[in-house]
């Protein structure tokens, strides 16, 4: 038992002390959060700062006086001819962004205008001008139909859905499908890549010990099973360390970013919409409220606990398989033919999770996949944000860990033979033979 | 020390060890000989509990081999290596700890050995920065660091230049004098006579010969002697003593030599008495087959017997 601790310690420390580990651990959240914050910051800043002059030539006659100046736009009606204005346009550049809006006589019928800019046309300015113009068209149309345009504008047609899930006990629970789906996606991606990333590290470690020929020295001191488990646990702890550091660093950075750069509502809006071109103010007004209550309705402790349990279970299960593969081959390229079929269940679940599983998290397929141990680490974690009965989670976790124990036993039997085999072309058939050798 | 009894090890269609029994006495250097693929490494792995035999048992100081014995054995495998990216000192501590030493003890003993073999400056180096020969030295120290009672060396001299081979050989002899039993596995015979007290010869998964080197050689001695001489005054000696010996080969002339085979019961003293009146005896040497000759003889004759009748 003491020896397995030594192995865990070496596997853990030798990786955590590596420069590349520190680099990835610290750079990743900085890049991620920093990049995200930068996008939000600049997109908001560009909206606030962006100011443009628009010179208007109104052939129609009634449009120009309906255009309203605001903090982004200043309209200047001109009586000069189009040619003169076009010629003057580039000269006005130093006064700020200057554009020329030409409104033809048949504007209300053709709904066509010309918008000329010195330099590259700015999409968000164009969007704002276009918004105002379409309002003018609507108002004009209502007027000609004899409808009071002001009373129409006072009608707000935005619908706020308060979706509730009725539990078997008759209780009502806030169901936030959108948020749940988002969390499910993120968790699914993290778990898929983490299981892969650290599973492959286990395989690499085994191949390294095999090719450097230290393996026989080690297993004359410890049992192959101890070495295999020590490696799996050690690398798993590296993974958990990395996750925890990422969570701490990201939360820290996010707090810093939100308090110093932007106010909270904007971030919330940005997170739901994720589209910098959208009008931030509008979005935060209509969905900011929903977002906060939605976040409160999500049971984060439960999700984080389940995530850790299923990540650990999935990682253990797959890394035991990766260890067996690593023992059977002499190089990483040779390993590819085995890693592909082994990870196929995970890959399929991963692909399914984006459509089928999140669409119908309590459907037959999703339920079955969340019990099958080779798919449950992803399938269950996708379902959990939507709410899964506790007994299902426990059953699935028990099946997962029981399968791991069985698979580790099988893998260890292949491993102990494989690590001493050199230059032999491994195949699944060969591995079955090894499995049957007496220990 | 070790009593190996009726070990059988089967790999799918290949039988690596077929009813092998060997007794390895305590405090001796024991040569485990045999050509490549004979089953030496399979046997060594069973002694190290890396694999288990299909049948048979091994007694270590009278007890059936178990996990407690692992820390009392030091093993230098033929396929050996170290973690390339790990510092030598750190790596040695790790390997010593795996053999049950405390960190403190490990450090102390590594320092002792590094000083002894002039490796002090290697502590912070990485394995990949050392030459092949230096790595072998590190590996040797790792094998003996925990002061094992039984040291198993599989081709220990491969990869060493003659100078370092000499140093390592002296270390092995010193460890043996301090009481360690040594199993020396090799297919190179040159060093066997120099080092080994006892040997076992394995070929084609079977033990074909074992015992003390002295006895084995006696078994193969043919009572043949080579005598270097000079004749008296150009007179050719007659050598006609048919009741004492027969002449195998006679080469008169400048560096005259005669090879004689004694008859059973004839004593060398009588032969000398008979020869003294005929020649100046300069040197007399018993012609004993070397371990090398015995090895070749045994292996080839067995191979001939087992492989000639059938084609696999």
Major beta sheet, strand line-up of chain B? 6-7-8-3-9-10
N-to-C SSE string of chain B, H for helix and E for strand: EEEHEEEHHHEHEHEEHEEEHEH
Model regions low in confidence, pLDDT < 50 over at least 5 residues of chain A:
273-289
Gyration radius over CA of chain B:
25 Å
- pLDDT averaged residue by residue of chain A: 81
**Helicity level of chain A:** 55-70%
Task: Let me know the largest β-sheet of chain B.
Answer: 6 strands, mixed
Q: What key phrases describe this protein's structure?
A:
heterodimer, A: alpha/beta, 4-stranded mixed β-sheet, 17 helices, 6 strands, elongated, B: 312 residues, alpha/beta, 6-stranded mixed β-sheet, 4-stranded antiparallel β-sheet, 14 strands, disordered C terminus, ABC-2_transporter_component (chain A), transmembrane helix (chain A)
Notes on the structure:
The complex is a heterodimer of chains A (439) and B (312). Helices cover 68% and strands 7% of the residues of chain A. Chain A has 17 helices and six strands. Chain A has a four-stranded mixed beta sheet with strand order 2-1-3-4. In chain A, strand 5 and strand 6 form a beta hairpin. Chain A is elongated. About 4% of the residues of chain A have low confidence. Chain B is of the alpha/beta class and 312 residues long. The two termini of chain B are 39 Å apart. In chain B, helix 2 crosses helix 3. The C terminus of chain B is likely disordered. Classes of the chains: A alpha/beta (439), B alpha/beta (312). Chain B: GO terms for molecular function: ATP binding; ATP hydrolysis activity.
């Amino acid at each position: 038992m003491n020896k397995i601790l030594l192995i865990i310690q070496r596997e853990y420390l030798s990786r955590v002390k590596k420069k590349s580990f520190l680099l990835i651990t610290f750079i990743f959240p900085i890049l991620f959060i920093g990049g995200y914050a930068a996008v939000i910051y600049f997109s908001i800043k560009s909206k606030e700062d962006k100011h443009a002059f628009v010179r208007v030539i109104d052939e129609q006659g009634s449009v120009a006086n309906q255009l309203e100046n605001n903090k982004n736009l200043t309209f200047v009606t001109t009586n000069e001819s189009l040619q003169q204005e076009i010629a003057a346009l580039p000269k006005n550049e130093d006064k700020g962004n200057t554009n020329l809006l030409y409104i033809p006589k048949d504007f209300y019928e053709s709904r066509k205008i010309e918008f000329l800019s010195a330099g590259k046309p700015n999409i968000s300015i164009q969007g704002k001008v276009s918004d105002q113009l379409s309002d003018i068209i609507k108002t004009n149309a209502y007027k000609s139909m004899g409808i009071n345009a002001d009373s129409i504008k006072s009608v707000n047609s935005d619908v706020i859905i308060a979706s509730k899930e009725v539990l078997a006990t008759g209780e009502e629970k806030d169901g936030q499908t959108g948020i749940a789906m988002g969390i499910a996606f993120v968790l699914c991606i993290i778990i898929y890549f983490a299981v892969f990333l650290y599973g492959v590290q286990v395989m690499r470690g085994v191949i390294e010990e095999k090719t450097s020929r230290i393996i026989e020295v080690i297993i004359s001191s410890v049992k192959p099973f101890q070495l295999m488990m020590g490696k799996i646990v050690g690398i798993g702890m590296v993974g958990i360390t990395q996750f925890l550091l990422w969570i701490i660093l990201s939360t820290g950075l996010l707090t810093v970013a939100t308090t110093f750069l932007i106010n909270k509502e904007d971030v919330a809006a940005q997170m739901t919409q994720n589209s910098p071109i959208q009008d931030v103010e509008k979005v935060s007004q209509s969905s900011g409220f929903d977002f906060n209550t939605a976040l409160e309705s999500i049971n984060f402790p439960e999700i984080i606990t389940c995530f850790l349990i299923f990540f650990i279970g999935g990682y253990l299960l797959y890394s035991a398989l990766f260890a067996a593969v690593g023992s059977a081959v002499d190089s990483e390229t040779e390993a590819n033919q085995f890693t592909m079929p082994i990870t196929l269940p995970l890959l399929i679940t991963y692909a399914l999770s984006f459509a089928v599983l999140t669409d119908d998290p309590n459907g037959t397929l999703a339920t079955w996949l969340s019990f099958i141990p080779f798919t449950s680490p992803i399938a269950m974690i996708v379902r959990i944000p939507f709410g899964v009965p506790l007994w299902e989670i426990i059953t699935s976790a028990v099946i997962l860990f029981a399968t791991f124990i069985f698979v580790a036993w099988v893998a260890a039997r292949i491993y102990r033979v494989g690590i001493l085999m050199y230059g032999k072309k491994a195949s699944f058939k060969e591995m079955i033979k090894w499995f049957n050798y007496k220990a | 020390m070790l009593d190996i009894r009726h070990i059988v090890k089967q790999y799918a269609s290949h039988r690596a060890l077929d009813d092998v029994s060997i007794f390895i006495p305590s405090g001796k250097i024991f040569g485990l000989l045999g050509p490549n693929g004979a089953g030496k490494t399979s046997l060594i792995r069973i002694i190290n509990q890396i694999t288990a035999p299909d049948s048979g048992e091994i007694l270590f100081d009278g007890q059936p081999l178990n996990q407690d014995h692992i820390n009392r054995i030091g093993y230098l495998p033929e396929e050996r290596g170290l973690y390339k990216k790990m510092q030598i000192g750190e790596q040695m501590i790790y390997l010593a700890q795996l053999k049950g030493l405390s960190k403190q003890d490990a450090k102390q003993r590594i320092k002792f050995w590094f000083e002894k073999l002039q490796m002090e400056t290697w502590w912070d180096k990485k394995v990949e920065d050392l030459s092949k020969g230096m790595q072998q030295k590190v590996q040797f120290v790792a094998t003996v660091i925990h002061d094992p009672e039984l040291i198993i060396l599989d081709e220990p001299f491969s990869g060493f230049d003659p100078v370092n081979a000499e140093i390592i050989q002296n270390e092995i002899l010193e460890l043996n004098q301090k009481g360690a039993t040594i199993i020396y596995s090799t297919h190179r015979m040159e060093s066997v006579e120099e080092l080994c007290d006892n040997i076992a010869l394995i070929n084609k998964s079977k033990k074909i010969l074992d015992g003390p080197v002295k006895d084995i050689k006696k078994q193969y001695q043919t009572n043949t002697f080579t005598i270097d001489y000079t004749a008296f005054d150009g007179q050719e000696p007659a050598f006609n003593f048919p009741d004492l010996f027969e002449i195998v080969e006679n080469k008169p002339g400048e560096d005259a030599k005669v090879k004689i085979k004694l008859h059973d019961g004839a004593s060398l003293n009588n032969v000398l008495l008979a020869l003294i009146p005929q020649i100046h005896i300069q040197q007399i040497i018993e012609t004993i087959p070397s371990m090398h000759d015995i090895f070749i003889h045994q292996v080839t004759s067995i191979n001939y017997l087992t492989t000639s009748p059938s084609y696999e």
